[in-house]
Amino acid sequence: MEQKKGNKPTLCCVQKSFLKRGQEGILTLFTSLLLSALIFPLKLYAIPAYEGLFTLQQSSGFTFEARQHGDEWYNWVETKNGYGIYKNSTSGNWEYYIPSADYDRGKRPSSLIGRTSHAVVGIADPSLLGIPRGLRPPKTSPKKPESFGSNRNIFPQKSLQTEATLEKGSKGTAIRGTMHLLIIAVDYADTEATYTANQIQPLLFGDSNSVSDFYSKTSYSSVLIAPAAELHGTPNDGFIGWLRLSGNHPNTGSNTDERNQAISKSAILAADPYIDYAQYDTNEDGVIEPTELSIMVMVAGYEAATGSLSPSVWAHSWGISGGCQVDNKTIYAYAQFGEKHRNHLATFGVMAHELGHQMFGLPDLYDTDDRNGFSYGIGYFDLMGYGSWGRSASEFDAGSSPTYLSAWCKEYLSWGNVNTISSIQSVSFPKADGNSSSIFRLDTADTNQYFLIENRQFSGYDAGFQSVAGITGHGGIVIYHIDRAKTPPLNWQVNADQNDKGVDVEEANERCSENSCSKLDAAVSLVETKMFFFYENNSAFTDTTIPGSRLKKGDPTNISVTDISSYGDIMTAMVVPSTFCTYSLSTINQTFDSGGGTGSVDIATLSDICAWTTSSNEDWITITSGSSNAGSGTVY
């Protein structure tokens, strides 16, 4: 029996106890209004396309393998061997793109833009037709969220003012405590639900292999994601569904727009009889922010990020223009995703990724701007990149073991302890999985740029690296080059430019070729074992190595990480931090008689890496030894 709130006098007592339970353990934060506005999502965030292979079928029955690239703004499909293809809506067949007219005229900047043809996959041979690999669909006008009333127009003015104030800062606010999550599942007359509440709810709140467990572990128990109190189905399990919405499935696919907002608004209203939203407005400002209650909407049908099946929606985190008014409160923020990943129930990696945006205010760390080239951003090294698609070698479905948040995300949210290395020392790096003191930091003379180091092994949810690195792969030391000018709150397009990233993995196997030094930047590989630092692969990171510790413009930092050990749960290395060199002289003048004489000057520095040179500006003064050195020394 489903209990609806307040619809019969006999439910009065049930409602009273329901509200009491719902008020217990509401999130306690270090700050209330300020933090809520900080985390309140002001932009549309989505998820990168699943890059794995899937099978497509032609009208003739011919099947072939393909993969999808891009994100919700710009995406395309390629055959397994890299030929760009599209689906002919008339024939239902997949056909090859052919080169654009600019390509034919030799204009290389447009060489990747294709145009439609009737070259059917399985019949035509692209190599005989002179079709190059890598052709993509032409780009239409950029679909910016502002074009359909999103971003700044969606949210209340107070949140925007707080965002502007926070842009003066440099770090997110610590988030700890119990966070509440509500899942609303909706279907349509033409698209009925496939899976049951009992199959879906554990993906969010189960003791293992769930969104809740993932965030408990990646935050080192800093946060607990708890189900919202509600009266639908199993009371207080945080899941309301399935609820039937009117009309047919909007099938927005990769065209995320106001129709997706309408889906979520309708879902929130449809769920209203089963939940008292007002109890979650803990700061009593009239708006239910995601830090008070996060709402995720599962839509029957397919997840567009996993392929071309329809009807579908592309997973995203956004807001409702004008808000949704329920229980005398306003709800703006929501996350949304499809029920099915091709032939199976959606995995929780997508859900964890979108909740990273909605509840914790994390940015995307994949490449969100294809106009300056396509890259893999941070790849599999973070949930907010492609790590949301991780799976262990023993699992079949992508996204069943999403990789942990990177050291930068954990530092940004103040999860775990950040150990700043300020002296020359041998450092032991425990693996990040399960150890809250596993993040190490090296500052530079540039206040915006620094390095973070952690030991990532393929254990816990980081077993998701095996999805690409394979069952024989393993981890090691990961070094991130951070640029605060490119990270929130100053910049939310963190890795949109592969040549100027905000959170950049220094790949241990970088080797400069004609196109790029980085396999992530060149979109060649999402992760490889040799991208990690370990003795048998690459054991040194200095100003003179590739990759190296220089600043973005090439200035040396004097940072070195050398003698890196073999991979393992505890790794070691000799670390020399950047030293801001100062010098002092034992004397600034000496007196000699007319007959001349000899003397010396002692030079003291802070570190052996501080170099200096001396010269004479008078021809009667001769330096006999000590004209240059590193560290303290004496000049004669």
* Average pLDDT reading: 85
Fraction in beta strands? 15-25%
Give the class from helix and strand content and strand pairing: alpha+beta
Number of E-state strands:
29
Range of helix content? 10-25%
The number of helical runs is 10
Global geometry: globular
List low-pLDDT spans.
7-42, 103-111, 141-170
Largest sheet: 9 strands, mixed
Radius of gyration: 28 Å
In angstroms, what separates the terminal alpha carbons?
A: 95 Å
Identify the quaternary structure here.
Answer: single chain
What does this structure look like?
The protein has 636 residues and is of the alpha+beta class. The protein contains 10 helices and 29 strands. It has helices at 12-23, 33-39, 101-104, 157-166, 197-205, 211-218, 258-271, 348-358, 407-412, 466-469; strands at residues 45-46, 54-57, 63-70, 75-79, 84-87, 94-96, 98-99, 114-115, 177-187, 223-227, 239-244, 294-303, 312-313, 316-326, 329-341, 344-345, 418-420, 425-430, 439-443, 449-456, 476-483, 503-505, 560-562, 570-576, 583-585, 601-605, 611-613, 628-630, 633-635. The strands form 7 sheets. Strands 1, 9, 10, 11, 12, 13, 14, 15 and 16 form a 9-stranded mixed sheet that branches. A 5-stranded antiparallel sheet has the order 2-3-4-5-6, with no helix packed on it. It has a 5-stranded mixed sheet with strand order 17-19-20-21-22. Strand 15 and strand 16 (344-345) form a beta hairpin. Helix 2 packs across helix 4.
